[in-house]
Design a protein that fits this description.
The complex is a heterodimer of chains A (752) and B (155).
Chain A (H helix, E strand, L loop, with lengths): L2 H14 L3 H9 L3 H8 L14 E3 L5 E5 L8 H13 L6 E5 L21 H23 L6 E4 L2 E4 L5 E3 H9 L29 H6 L14 E6 L8 E3 L2 H5 L4 E6 L15 E5 L2 H9 L4 E2 L9 H12 L4 E6 L2 H7 L2 E9 L11 E6 L4 E5 L4 H12 L6 E5 L13 H13 L3 E4 L2 H6 L7 E9 L5 E9 L16 H4 L12 E7 L15 H19 L3 H9 L28 H14 L11 E9 L2 E11 L5 E11 L6 H20 L4 E2 L2 E2 L18 E6 L17 H13 L16
Parallel strand pairs in A: 2-3, 7-17, 15-16, 19-20, 23-26
Antiparallel strand pairs in A: 1-2, 4-5, 5-6, 7-10, 8-11, 9-10, 12-20, 13-18, 14-15, 14-17, 18-19, 21-22, 22-23, 24-25
Chain B lengths: L1 E4 L2 E4 L8 H8 L18 E4 L2 E4 L12 E3 L1 H4 L6 H8 L9 H12 L7 H8 L9 H20 L1
Helix pairs in contact in B: 3-4, 3-6, 4-6
The chains are: A alpha+beta (752), B alpha+beta (155).
Chain lengths: 752, 155
């Protein structure tokens, strides 16, 4: 891999790693003003294409380009919906095109819950630009002021006279007009919105309910070979010997190819191993199983997750590096009437999207075309170009639907595998990851050990809060020397602890990675919220105060957290703290709302066992209550859950509701799953030993409340996940008195 | 051997131990039936075998015999099966990848033309995994699909 590719990977990571400066890089790609200037780019065809997102055919039909990847968040509906607000088109005359990976769209890396919030203004402007050009074209014909015209239902309407003309009749004139300046656009007043805030049905519903929707695994081409890869069981081990020649003779096998061995840093490179190319998936799979490979050893063979768990917890119990400090926690400990502390552990997890990674490639001497379920087609393009030593312009990345992503498909190693194999095979190749490959060779959600401590005075008031977090960082995937939580990861639910205590001390500790670490839905918020919100419930119990009242009091008065006062610099998901402050009033509001919904105050008299948790992440606020029932055999179920979210302005309330339901359930999976390792090899392999929530482990119904507000849009895809695991643990404590500080929580808690 | 899939007869000459899933996906190029686990653990590959829900990833070609296979493409001609309609009404799919299997599993229950209880839905659907977490909507959609058929039958 070339140096430039390596540095590109680092930059890509920086953008992703939620450090303040990292996100600024991402934002700087397309600030609003420059973004608008870019709309004036030459259109791709002779059709009327006022910008890269919207184009008109001669018959007035509209094609809207979605530049973000669809992985279940309904972005292929919500992104067009934002443009439709100003465009005034008729959905029946609109088709949605999926963008290839191309810098001209601005950032396409679909993660960090930012598709809406980072595109809201610029896409309304994109719609308004097209609408103003149509109005100007019609106004010329009518000899009226274009600002007296509006676009509605695929017509331009002259408001004063009611005259109207279909888009089809004015696109020809509009195409010849200069693109208006941003200052000339007049966006609709919020009160007049008809699209934003409306539950527009998802554009892919028909395809998804008839089996015609196309995912990465579904690509079929003439003359295509199917590749299945045996990857090294331990990270960075390489082939010592294997029976490739024998396997090559098997039925249907066309080729057996050794992949280049991988070494640190992992980046987005393929892992190495041996690829079997055959005429269908089954034959490739069978032949792959017949490979008898001896592997060279690697330093990572020392990794045993049981020992590692103990080491993390031992480390968490020792003083670490202080990252935020207020007052004097040590003195508070000396002065305290009571000190409570607890340690929490959360194991590695795999994102495990229902569709395992897959990519298809066609490579010629000077070009490459890829079809893949990637969250970041621009990253895939750079990686493929680097691996093939080709200019980026010669690589096309077509984005299929993603059968789930959850962060896994933001790492395009599988697209690179397909490109390398198609080049060598000289014909189209589809790389199919098996579930076993996905579970055993992932970019894992990090394993964490944490220690929390609180000091209480004689009146049971919390006078001090201590939280040390220890985990191998995502940055270790990009820099082998990185061995402590990065600033960006601390920003996810640790540094932004919202409690109003006079003595606060937050610390981090070192831990080395032995597997590839990568982001997963909600990232470090998942384990930080688990520890923080479990510990609050423990304190409430010890002080015999109602958990909700205790939590509200700990958060304290309405205020915006002042990080400067504690000498901390908070990255805030790359956004300005003035625009998106850490607002304790909004956090308390979702807690009050969700506890009202759940009839929290009557739970004891009604004999219901409820658990509560709340967390701010991705600039939004969410709180959940989970109700559990535990039967005599120790099996728990969740008859009901409630979640309240304040995500600021929302584009499609049904999408938000779906994300709250699904995000909460994803969080329940985070509480029951685990990835462990023995001698460097991941122990789990499929859904029998990597547990994810099935219907019986999930709430029979979930009530969702979306707080109505005119605040700026926050994230939606990730914020519902972090409260789930602590709410579940807190509910199980209420029901049984058992406190789960180490995840996973067994499905039968009598075995705990 | 001859296999009947969506009322059409196909001839298959390959390895009799190959699971039906790969014949459907790789040979017939019908990609509505999904691969996700390959071990009958998740239900994404569910098809009907004489109306009974079956995991095609674990069904060898040799085991099909003269039973009729139905895939999501054959569940209805135009996406109008009550389950498909209910899935759209409840906006069930998120990523959609598991939903062919979920709908085939649900259809085998709903096709019995009886109202269903929450418990029946849960036990019938518990083998189908959805990582997006659409379970609450699946429960609701199965119930409305079952009701719509049962009502039609009794009318």
């Amino acid at each position: 891999m070339s140096d430039s590719t390596v540095s590109q990977s680092r930059r890509t990571f920086l953008k992703r790693s939620v450090t303040a400066s990292g996100f600024t890089l991402g934002v700087a790609l397309l600030p609003a003003t420059r973004g608008h200037a870019m709309f004036a780019n030459a259109p791709e065809s002779d059709n009327f294409a006022p910008n890269v997102f919207i184009s008109f055919a001669d018959d007035g039909k509209v094609e809207i380009t979605c530049h973000r990847s669809e992985m279940g968040q309904q972005v292929r509906t919500s992104i067009p919906q934002i443009m439709m607000e100003e465009l005034g088109a008729d959905w029946q005359q609109v088709t949605i095109k999926q963008a290839t990976g191309d810098a001209k769209y601005g950032d396409q890396n679909t993660d960090g819950s930012r598709s809406v919030r980072r595109n809201f203004q610029r896409l309304r402007e994109a719609g308004a630009t097209a609408a103003l050009m149509l109005c100007t074209a019609a106004a010329k014909g009518w000899q009226v002021d274009p600002y007296e015209c509006v676009t509605e239902n695929h017509f331009v309407v002259h408001k004063p006279t009611g005259r109207k003309v279909p888009f089809a009749d004015v696109v020809g004139v509009a195409a010849k007009l200069p693109v208006p300046k941003q200052g000339d656009l007049k966006l609709k007043a919020r009160d007049n919105w008809t699209q934003i805030g409306k539950a527009v049905p998802s554009v892919d519903l028909t395809g998804m309910t008839t089996g015609t929707a196309v995912y990465g695994q579904d690509i079929v081409m003439d003359n295509m070979l199917y590749a299945v890869i045996q990857r090294p069981p331990v990270l960075f081990s390489s082939i010592k010997s294997s029976n490739q020649a024998e396997v090559k003779k098997m039925a249907g096998v066309v080729d057996v190819i050794d992949m280049p061995a991988a070494s640190a840093p992992a980046l987005f490179n393929p892992l190495g191993g041996i690829a079997v190319l055959a005429t269908n998936t089954w034959l490739a799979w069978q032949a792959c199983n017949a490979l008898k490979t001896e592997w060279q050893t690697s330093d990572n063979a020392s990794y045993n997750s049981d020992d590692y768990q103990q080491a993390l917890l031992d480390n968490a119990a020792k003083p670490g590096e202080v990252v935020r400090k207020l007052g004097d926690f040590a003195q508070a400990t000396t002065d305290a009437a009571k000190v409570v502390d607890a340690s929490y552990y959360a194991p590695h997890l795999a994102q495990a999207p229902m569709e395992p990674p897959a990519a298809t490639a066609v490579v010629t001497a000077d070009s490459a075309e890829i079809w893949a379920c990637v969250q970041s087609p621009q990253t895939a393009r750079q990686q493929v170009a680097g691996a093939l030593k080709m200019p980026v312009e010669n690589v096309t990345i077509n984005v299929t639907l993603l059968g789930g992503g959850f962060g896994r498909k933001a790492k395009p190693d599988f697209a690179v595998e397909a490109a390398l194999l198609a080049k060598q095979a000289g014909r189209p190749v589809k790389v199919v990851w098996r579930r076993e490959d996905d579970i055993k060779h992932g970019y894992y959600h990090s394993v964490s050990g944490q220690r929390l401590s609180a000091t209480l005075d004689a009146d049971n008031q919390v006078t001090g809060w201590y939280h040390k977090t220890v985990f191998p960082p995502i940055s270790s995937t990009f820099n082998p020397a990185a061995n402590k939580p990065s600033d960006g990861e601390l920003d996810l639910g640790h540094l932004d602890t919202p409690f109003d205590v006079p003595n606060l001390q937050l610390e981090r500790g070192e831990a080395n990675a032995h597997v590839r670490i990568g982001w997963m839905r909600s990232v470090a918020n998942v384990y930080h919220a688990f520890a923080k919100e479990s510990f609050v419930a423990e304190l409430a119990h010890q002080t015999e105060v109602d958990h909700k009242d205790f939590l509200l009091q700990l958060i304290g008065k309405d205020r915006h957290i002042d990080f400067a006062a504690s000498n901390a610099k908070y990255g805030n998901y790359g956004d300005d703290l003035n625009e998106y402050p850490v607002d304790t009033a909004r956090l308390k509001n979702v807690i009050n709302k969700v506890t009202d919904m759940a009839d929290w105050d009557k739970r004891e008299q009604q004999g219901r066992f409820l658990g509560l948790a709340a967390h701010r992440s991705f600039l939004s606020y969410s709180a959940a209550v989970i109700e559990v029932k535990v039967n005599s055999r120790g099996e728990w179920t969740i008859p009901k859950a409630w979640i309240a979210i304040d995500a600021g302005t929302v584009v499609n309330p049904d999408h938000v509701k779906a994300q709250c339901e699904g995000g909460l359930i994803y969080g329940i999976s985070c509480a029951i799953g685990q990835i462990t390792a023995l001698n460097g090899e991941v122990t789990q392999s499929n859904f029998h030993d990597y547990l994810v929530a099935r219907m019986p482990q999930t709430p029979v119904s979930i009530d969702v409340e979306i707080i109505e507000t005119e605040a700026l849009p926050g994230g939606v895809g990730e914020p519902p996940t972090p409260p789930a695991a602590p709410a579940l643990a807190n509910a199980l404590f209420a029901a049984t008195g058992q406190r789960f500080r180490n995840l996973p929580i067994p499905l039968n808690i009598k075995t705990a | 051997m001859k296999v009947t899939i969506n009322k059409q007869e196909f001839d298959y000459q390959g390895d009799p131990s190959m699971p039906l899933l790969w014949f459907i996906r790789d040979e017939l190029k019908m990609t509505g039936t999904k691969y996700s686990c390959g071990m009958a653990l998740c239900g994404a590959c569910t098809v009907h075998l004489d109306g009974e829900p079956t995991r095609s990833c674990q069904l060898p070609m040799a085991a099909i015999g003269d039973k009729a296979v139905t895939t999501i493409e054959g569940l209805s001609e135009d996406g109008s099966h009550p389950v498909q309609q209910a899935w759209r009404e409840h906006n069930v799919p998120q990523c959609g990848y598991c939903q062919s299997g979920q709908m085939m599993q649900a259809a085998s229950l709903v096709n019995k033309q009886k109202p269903v209880t929450d418990e029946q839905i849960e036990s019938h659907m518990s083998g189908n995994i959805c990582r997006c977490g659409t379970y609450p909507r699946i429960r609701a959609a199965v119930k409305s699909a079952a009701e719509s058929i049962a009502v039609k039958v009794t009318e």
